[in-house]
Give the backbone structure.
Amino acid sequence: MTRKQRRLTMIGGSLAILAIAAALVLNALRDSIVFFSTPVMVAEKHIPPGKRFRLGGLVEKGSLVRGDHLAVNFKVSDGSATLPVTYTGILPDLFREGQGVVAEGALDASGVFKADTVLAKHDETYMPKDVADALKKQGHWKDDYGSKPDYNAKPVGTQGASR
Amino acid sequence: MIAEAGHYALVLALALALIQSTIPVLGARWRDPALMNVALSTALAQLLFVAASFAALVTLHVTSDFSVVNVFENSHSLKPMIYKITGVWGNHEGSMLLWVLILALFGGLVAAFGNNLPLSLRAHVLAVQAWIASAFYLFILITSNPFLRIANPPIEGRDLNPVLQDIGLAVHPPMLYLGYVGFSISFSFAVAALIEGRIDAAWARWVRPWTLVAWIFLTLGIAMGSYWAYYELGWGGWWFWDPVENASLMPWLAGTALLHSLVVMEKRNALKVWTILLSILAFSLSLLGTFLVRSGVLTSVHAFATDPTRGVFILLILCIFIGGSLSLYAWRASALKQGGLFAPISREGALVLNNLFLTTACATVFIGTLYPLALEVVTGDKISVGAPFFNLTFAPLFVPLMIAVPFGPLLAWKRGDLLAAAQRLTAAGVAALIAVAVLWAWTRGGSALAPLAIGLAVFVIAGALSDLAERTGLFRTPFATAMQRARGLRRSTWGTVFAHAGVGVALIGIVCETTWNSEYIGSMRPDDVAKIAGYALKLDGVTHRQGPNFREMAAQFTVSLDGKRLSTMTPSKRNFTTRGSTTTEAALLTRGASQLYISLGDTAADGAIAVRIYHKPMVLLIWFGPVLMALGGMLSLSDRRLRVGAPKAARVPRGLQAAE
């Protein structure tokens, strides 16, 4: 093989692998990404039942009902709308009423969000970033959700963090 | 006093780094050995001062001095001593201080052990190290000073995030940082080579041990982090394709590619331009990882308190270093002379293929990690790219790579014989086919993919062993001769065998865990029995006890197999009073390479506890594989060639030539 042929083989091989990778990426991006919505966005966008998405908002106070066999019902609210959620399983340690939550799943035919995963993605202020951004955008953000204590004043409250 | 002394030491380190950034470069330009050697003393002094600064912060944490914000926010007087120490880097400011400490450590090591480097190369390398160091000292001093005081000191601290109160924090971050920051050395060498416009096989020989050290630590650090997440977070997952995990995986992929291309450069003096690019990329991805984790663009357990100015500052550092080094590369790379020729089918060709697949896989991870951020900036839509994306892109790219792995070491340099290599791999191929057939028969009706994947893993392991058998002449010569040859083999050959086998071992673990993992979720009362994978787990009862800084509810389970009592397991839930948060402490029972895993959920009003039990077959292999890989790396590192073999540069006088 001449130098030119060798170089062409190399370049051709690299391009082929890159093309395959690009095809894989595009295909995967079409099928496997999950959008994030808050309850009011769900209402506006008319998300069809069965379409997977991530629901974020605050767990409405007093809405948590535990059923048999680890079934859990609660409502997620973003200040303007609420959406009922059902989940079967163990809730993460940081799941609390009145605090932020992100759940992944799909709507069923009756408009209830069936979650198969409940994430407790918090930073130190107990508020998932996606939820915080959405609430801010819709004007339902209260400053005390994310306020950082002033350490030269008296420290108030205790906070924690988790993945 | 201690806090101020620590702060002052850091300022002095910055001053030293600024001197080290400029004087040696001028020295190299004017060919003045005295000026070039300034870098030696400044690098060592920097190490001394950063170490002093770090020691000051450790002292503050150990003595629970709550007049320092960092200690107040992350410590508690009742916290066990080990967590008082590890808590130093269990927060943003402290972890950045650890980052620069390790950077200074590597700089100091180059200064101390770089005696055989050409004077100007060493001066340039240390100067580039100092550029990075200056940027990060400034970052710490301006945006994340760990030594800030509180005007009215509180009596008690706010405690460390309970999830981090674990022995994992003592091991995972230092290891990971040794890996991340270790790539700064290959980066500095690459930039120095570009500045000097000169690069040869000796350069690769100098860079390889440093890259290898970084890679070993990064491998172990990632594996450790994965195991920690597995047992600490309570849902038994070991890899979530979380952006923060991807941030560590990307430098690892680029670093692995770099290790392999350095071999080509050292042995055959080829792929110079590419190797330089990879050196730059590996460290750039480490910086990107630091940015993703520390800037607060992502929410995760790693993101601590977030502050936009920090994000902007790190982004600035990122742009300057990545943009600067890539521009330098674009400008100077053509000056580097191309080296040895080789046919596509050859050892070099195989290593190029390895590089192609690793960098492409790295690119898919890059896209999957950054696409959501980019989309949010552009359209405002929030999406998440999770495991399905990576399963569809990363996995298919790894399959051909794994098939190619055993072929590489069997091909000759320059021009290889694929057919001969295939013949030598017949035994490995047969072993793989047998594995597939046996598994298929055994798991009839199950997943068809799993036996194939395990067959692939067996092929990789058996291929590594056939390479060994081939080199020692096992089965062809008397056993004693083969043993003698095995002793005579170069350590780096053993390293290759171990590292490649490690990949196969990890794959077996991954496939077994994901395919044959069984799960039991339910609520249990005392004396209830849960059955899973042949084991019976009886809940004996629940006890409450008080820990140093938490209250704990522990449930005791008796595990039996076929009616025979094996052991007890006590998973627990800990309530940390100071932060008012709860952690789940899973209980693990190891049986061979498999594990039983119990974690507790909530307790219902009637006393029933929600329980999650997993049986994870062969799960330990997932981490045993990376340990094998790291062991292979260490064997390679101990190769005599890398220790004493580094030759003087071809023509010493040219080494003193300044860049034009």
About this structure: Residues 122-126, 143-163 of chain A have pLDDT under 50 and may be disordered. The helical segments of chain A are 3-32, 39-45, 129-137, 143-146. Chain A touches chain B through 51 residues (CB under 8 Å). The first strand of chain A starts at residue 33 and ends at 37.
